[in-house]
Amino acid sequence: MDDKDIIELFLSRDEIAIHELSGKYGSFCHRIAWNILRNHEDSDECVNDAWMAVWTSIPPHEPNSLAGFSGKIVRRISIDRLRKRCALKRPDTAFINIEEELRFMEEFTVKSVETEYLEKETLHSIEKFLQQQPEFDRVIFIRRYWYFDSLQEIANVSGKSVGSIKIKLHRIRAKLSKYMEELEE
Q1: Angle at the Cα of 105 (from 62 to 98), degrees rounded to 5?
Q2: What is the CA radius of gyration of the chain?
Q3: What is the per-residue DSSP string for 62-116?
Q4: What is the DSSP string of 33-53?
Q5: What are phi and psi of 131, to 5 degrees?
Q6: What distance in Å separates the CA atoms of residue 83 and residue 99, rounded to the nearest whole number?
Q7: pTM > 0.85
Q8: How much is the pLDDT for 93?
Q9: pLDDT one-digit tens code per residue, 27-47
Q10: At residue 108, does pLDDT exceed 60?
């Protein structure tokens, strides 16, 4: 079943939509949750919570990309779950490595509801920046900061060393920082 058919099921409030969504994008969303949480039970719960959030979001929203829409929801829920877990105890060491890099990314993310427009403009600027980058740079940037793939996973897939991936990501972040500063001027 294609995405438009699944969205139509959601719009008509047919519960089969969740089953179809789970069948088509369940492993994709579970991978996102796993990369953030590194815990199967928590990942399963976040994916299930995401299905409920998709159910309540369609309608009124009618996403262009069901995979992106679902992935974004499970990512947000998983990050919230990780923050709650970290508030109760020491954070997972797997997430500590990326936390510093994410702080850098948060500099460009506006959190106020009143400035939602600016947030969309910022995200558009980051997308535009990424479109101007070589494909390899785009892929590793998205794998690291959207899917939360570990440096080792990115290195394994790309055939590069972990050190070269670290350096490449550092350079991309520096270029992004310069790009964003130039836009502000």
Answers
A1: 105
A2: 18
A3: --S-HHHHHHHHHHHHHHHHHHHHHHHSPPPHHHHHHHHHHHHHHTT----GGGH
A4: HHHHH--HHHHHHHHHHHHHH
A5: -65, -25
A6: 11
A7: no
A8: 52
A9: 999 999 999 998 999 999 999
A10: no
